[in-house]
Design goal:
The protein is of the alpha+beta class. It has ten helices and 15 strands.
Length: 321
């Protein structure tokens, strides 16, 4: 074939099997044999079977991209107020413990820095029902651009909680971090419609990360954006390699949530007249330096006396406290 997945019937035409054996038996025998052969993956959704050679799968499907790996952090969930828990639900991070909705419905999400970087989407609670997940470790899906109707292959990796294969689409459509994407089930099984809030590109003020003396800094710069976005989540950078170096350093040092927040806060605070930073912005910026769901960040804000809540999820930082 064209390098796509193949069903048992496609494969049987290439195999020298006894034509007297019932086709159902042949199909079952072949599926059974391939299921126990680690060279092959069943990449179809629930209730379907379609075979693909494991070694032909993209590298970032065989192994989770580094920026998406979350090393679980212990924190005290009782610190999170109902308001912070509601904000956590809204952010719908794939590593937050959120129960997926029971039914399949169109989903909207705001793209985060690690996923924009890796060309992936989170397999978050809102997105899970769209993908009829089988027990297979990797599942192939087809994305269809809702406007152009062009399609492209994606890969669902349940263990890593991500969906791979969107880098070109993100780049072509200039989707920013914080950009709103919408997904809906396609007409056929394994198809997903994808789109975004298209608008005439306008020059907007955006937080851009820079690096000075091995520390992250932020400045407001005008950028042309043709996509609806969450103003509190948008962060970008013209120095991606330098941000990557900071991320590698944070990984190597296994830095605490507190030490990362103490670096981020003074970098973000000057961007507002009151020197306040929204919890969503801290979450978004934190994920430039280390992959982390909102829970540990919010718990640190509440538990650390240097951070004070000034209402509406805005915080100030007072190092003296």
């Amino acid at each position: 074939g064209e390098g796509g997945p193949m069903e048992a019937d496609d494969l049987l035409t290439h195999l020298d099997m006894d034509p007297d054996i019932d086709i159902g038996v042949q199909r079952f025998s072949l599926n059974y044999a391939l299921a126990s052969d680690e060279r092959f993956d069943n990449v179809a959704g629930k209730g379907r079977i379609s075979w693909f050679l494991h070694r032909m799968e993209p590298d970032d499907v065989q192994e989770t991209p580094a920026r998406l790996r979350y090393r679980p952090i212990d924190y005290d969930r009782s610190r999170l107020s109902p308001q912070l828990t509601a904000l956590e639900l809204e952010l719908d991070d794939e590593w937050s413990a959120i129960t997926p909705p029971a039914s399949v419905q169109p989903a909207i999400l705001a793209l985060t820095y690690p996923h924009r970087w890796a060309g992936t989407l989170p397999l978050s609670s809102r997105l899970q029902p769209l993908f009829k997940l089988s027990s297979s470790p990797r599942q192939r899906v087809v994305f269809i651009d809702e406007k152009t109707k062009e399609d492209f292959a994606g890969w669902v990796v349940p263990e890593g909680r991500y969906i791979y294969g969107l880098q070109e689409w993100f780049d072509e459509n200039k989707i920013p971090v914080g950009g709103f994407l919408h997904l809906a089930p396609g007409k056929e099984a394994g198809q997903i419609l994808i789109g975004y809030d298209r608008r005439r590109p306008q020059r907007e003020w955006v937080r851009l990360a820079t690096v000075t003396d091995n520390r992250i800094q932020f400045e407001l710069k005008r950028r042309s954006i043709g996509c609806g976005y969450d103003d509190l989540l948008i962060v970008g950078s013209d120095v991606v390699a330098a941000i990557d170096a900071l991320w590698r350093r944070a990984e190597a040092k296994e830095r605490t949530v507190a030490s990362l927040l103490v670096e981020l806060f003074p970098a973000l605070a000057p961007l507002t007249p009151q020197e306040t930073v929204h919890a969503k912005t801290l979450y978004s910026a934190m994920n430039m330096l280390q992959r982390m769901p909102p829970g540990p960040i919010f718990a640190e804000l509440v538990g650390n006396p240097a951070f004070q809540n000034v209402g509406d999820h805005y915080w100030i930082y007072d190092p003296v406290r």
